[in-house]
Amino acid sequence: MLQQAVDWLLYSAIKMDSTTRLAETVNYVIYDTIKILFLLFIMVFIAAFLRSYLPQDKMKKWLSKKRYGLENLLAAIFGAITPFCSCSSIPLFIGFIRSGIPLGVTFSFLVTSPLVNEYLVVLMLGFFGWKITAAYVISGIFLGFFSGIILGKMKLEKYLNKDIALNAKNVKQKIFSTIQQRFNFSINESYSMVGKLWIWLIVGVGIGALIHNFVPQQAIEAITSRTGIFTVPIVVLLGVPMYGSCAAIVPIAVALFQKGIPIGTALAFMMAISGLSFPEGVMLKGVMKLKLILIFFAVVSVGIILTGYLFNFLQNILL
Questions:
Q1: 20 to 30 A Cα–Cα from 212, which one of 99, 152, 181, 304?
Q2: Maximum Cα–Cα distance for the chain, whole Å?
Q3: Which pTM was predicted?
Q4: What is the pLDDT along the chain (319 residues), one digit of tens a residue?
Q5: Residue 218: partners with Cβ closer than 8 Å, 6 or more residues away
């Protein structure tokens, strides 16, 4: 029904020529933007409502106990249900360190939090479908899980700044006593998230539409054929210094995929941009030494590259 409404608006009401690339691009942008914004609002509301029942103080206690890696898995799952970007995750990451949670466990949270969240899941469902979305969510959680374990085994606490407590910010748990309060909180979260992301979503969908309708598929195939097996690490190295919202990155990734880029390569590029960024490194410099930041970025980058290769290998199963 939405597609029919958009078609009527452009081709009947506005009288655009449906055979032109411009009309196809505008149609692509309007349809995907409306669809994803609606899904985004609903999913953020559901996630926020469920999150209002999550006891943050108890989470800290659970994550501080050693259970043969289970604490890393819990931290990664907790990161997946928090709607943070790579920079927004840092205050909570610092709060975990201050509360005595092992460094490797806090890194499991920091890795997964920007890679997996409710609005990214909504975007991926709308663009890629449930198979790829489910595989991405699982891989993002396990990337945080294994990265945290590896970093924890390396005993890197000595690279934390001594004045970390002075730079940290407390994240206070909101207390709700009624369903109405939880409902109001969830509605406000939905409006807030949509308000923050709508412009990035339009930009991302617009760029994706331009790639989809104007970039020749032969050009994309030529680039990937020249770099061959090294395409995945190249796109990850290109993506790590960049910073962007998932709302803008997902449409670009799907457009690259539609032009012939393998699914794992496109998703690795998206993971590198959303999960690691130069601004994140600058913020982390306030609580840890440069060597630890570089080790963290290197471990996660290798994990993203391996994930990209895995998705490329499983592409025929996922599609």
A1: 304
A2: 67
A3: 0.69
A4: 788 888 888 888 888 888 888 888 888 778 877 877 777 687 678 767 876 776 656 666 666 566 667 888 988 988 888 766 665 576 677 667 766 678 888 899 999 988 887 777 877 888 888 899 999 999 999 999 999 999 989 988 888 876 553 443 444 556 777 889 889 988 987 887 677 667 766 776 777 677 667 766 566 556 666 777 888 998 888 877 765 656 667 877 887 787 778 899 989 988 888 888 776 777 677 678 889 999 999 999 999 999 999 999 988 888 7
A5: none
